[in-house]
Amino acid sequence: MMLNDSKNVSVIIPAYNAEKTIRQCVMSALRQTRKPAEIIIYDDCSTDGTRDVLKELTDFDPVVKVLFGEQNVGAGVARTQLLQAAQGDFVAFLDSDDSWHETKLEKQIAYMEDRSLDICVCSYEIIDEAGTKIGTRVPPQKITRFNMHLADWIPTSMTVIRNGLNSAKKMPDIRRRQDYAFWLILFRDNPGLTCSSVDEVLGTYLRSSNSLSSSALTNVKYNFVMFRSVMKYSVLLSFLCLLANIVTRIART
Questions:
Q1: Are 203 and 129 spatial neighbours (Cβ–Cβ below 8 Å)?
Q2: Average pLDDT over residues 179-194
Q3: Is it the case that residue 105 has pLDDT exceeding 50?
Q4: What are the pLDDT digits (tens) for 195-216?
Q5: pLDDT of residue 92
Q6: Sequence-distant (≥ 6) Cβ neighbours of residue 65 within 8 angstroms
Q7: Pairwise CA distance, residues 150 & 169, whole Å
Q8: Residue 228: C-alpha distances to residues 77, 173, 183 (Å)
Q9: Beta bridge partners of 197
Q10: Domains along the chain?
Q11: What is the distance between the alpha carbons of residues 43 and 16, in angstroms, rounded to a whole number?
């Protein structure tokens, strides 16, 4: 059963050379029991057949809209374009190689409404390129500004935010860890921000070998760069946050 509600949801998807995965990704959003009001995709100058697939999807359902970049700008700038275009009361993030279970939006938004949350995440399964399940990731039930310095507990493709939060229309213009910086900025610029996790697997994350986020070691290194360049933390504080990241990552593997 498809649910309708007076509060709309915008789904935003940055895409680059996603010919093999974008169809399944978008269809998982279209098949939601709470169908989004709009699904906006930013094509970051793909060089494969992504644009052909996007044409098929826009023909299939007018809810799907596509923004075409003029030059490759990376996920941070792409998401900024999408955030500024999103008109819904809620904004749901989704990467072009990930997908959702059909009740994800319905359950997350009901959870947000019941608890007056600003951000909601959910548990998810991790698969490899062959479709084999690698594991399941369960974020903490309560996510705070403090424990976000221990690790990035907010998985982008599994996150819904209320539109209109301070600093929520621009993602940092860095190639790596721009999502982690974005969440930290939201906590910093929205005192009292509430974030919690639905303790249910509601999505699937693809861990590909060539993904920017596939190397844990690389991510940790770029976390330090992000703490210094975007968050403007001191060298000492950035180093302490880096140590906390490393310890947390070892503890949860």
A1: no
A2: 98
A3: yes
A4: 999 999 999 999 876 554 555 6
A5: 98
A6: 38, 39, 40, 41, 58
A7: 25
A8: 20, 14, 15
A9: 121
A10: 9-211 (3.90.550.10), 215-253 (no CATH)
A11: 6
Q: For the range 57-61, what are the long-range contacts, defined as Cβ-Cβ under 8 Å and sequence gap of 24 or more?
A: 57/22, 57/23, 57/26, 60/30, 61/30
Rounded Cα distance, 160 and 195, in Å: 10
**In one letter, which amino acid is 157?**
S
Residue type, 23: R
Angle between helices 50-60 and 22-30 in degrees, nearest 10:
20
Q: pLDDT tens digits, residue range 70-86?
A: 999 999 999 999 999 99
- Residue 59 CB contacts under 8 Å (≥ 6 apart), including other chains: none
Looking only at Cα atoms, what is the longest distance across the chain? 53
Taking the whole predicted model, whether its pTM rises above 0.85 is answered as yes
**Is residue 156 over pLDDT 70?**
yes
Spatial neighbors of 115 by CB under 8 A, at least 6 apart, are: 194, 196
Residue type at 199 in one-letter notation: D
- Which two three-digit tokens encode residue 147? 């424990």
A 10 A CB-CB count for 191 gives: 8
Q: Which two tokens stand for residue 155?
A: 């998985």
Task: Look up residue 214 and give its two tokens.
Answer: 């596939």
User: Quick one: CA dihedral 213, 251, 192, 112, positive or negative?
Assistant: positive
